[in-house]
Amino acid sequence: MVRTTVQELAAAVEELPRQYVVAHEQDQGLLAADEMPEPIPLIDLSRLTTAAAADEADKLRAALQTWGLFMVTNHGIEESLMDAMMSASREFFRQPSEEKQKCSNLIDGGGKHSEVEGYGNDEVVNQAEGLSWNDRLHLRVEPEDERNFTKWPAHPKSFRDVLLEYASRTKRIRDLVFRSIAKLLDLDEDYFLNQISSKDPGFARFNYYPPCPRPDLVLGMRPHSDAGLLTILFVDHDVGGLQVERDGRWYNVPAKPYSLVINLADCMEIMCNGIFRSPVHRVVTNAERERLSLAVFYAVDGETVLEPAPGLLDDERPARYGKFKAKDFGLSFD
What we know:
IPNS-like_sf, DIOX_N, alpha+beta, iron, 21% strand, 8-stranded mixed beta sheet, 7 helices
């Protein structure tokens, strides 16, 4: 038995299953966004390593303090590679169900239990929360020796090579962003990189959001913050949907062709002692167009001990977080 996918539901149902409804008729506008107080900063990553770095660093600081995320251009991933990655993703999700199920994340015959890696969608854990209107393919890309290629699609044939190259580029972006954040905090520029172990996981998650008949009542992804260190998001060229929460209000994150959206995650907020924040975000649906995105998550091993960077603490700036293992607070993918 396999779990019904959202893609199959979208093609067949006239009335939404109630477990996907997160708003009700009387809550019209609940999923709408407010007008932006100011734009989300667009950072030219190539300038962070040049003589012009100061201006970009100021924009990066403002973004991390107010939004917890930022958009980047000139990030070192060629448009041709981004096109190839999105094309391979789209081709995977357009395959027949039986082909996609070869990568299934289900670990039993009853379709009730799943693992992190593989193709699938939400488990029904809490009916009150509502399910997310998306299907996804979740693949480990780090560490290299723990990649489970049995979960990677065999079709399209280009998928593996394109993802391996794409993941190598996002890893470089991660390292540059970590060094830039360390400099903003007056830490040694390799401070955060030195907290990473060779066992720390990285995952690529391909998200497919089919058109939804009631986008006013259904979320593509429920509100959450990311548990790890950093997330690098690549979205369809002009199909928006990502929203970020700030001061109790929701705002649309613009979709800019060939840009990336980068957000801090919970472990980084802890190590930054809350100076920079891990934003709560969600994805809304639309009735006309499918939406594809690829998020690369960099996380920590479950045994990693998390605490604020000592260089950020003094009598006037006490620790806002204790010292604990990531696995004890659900901040790892283990």
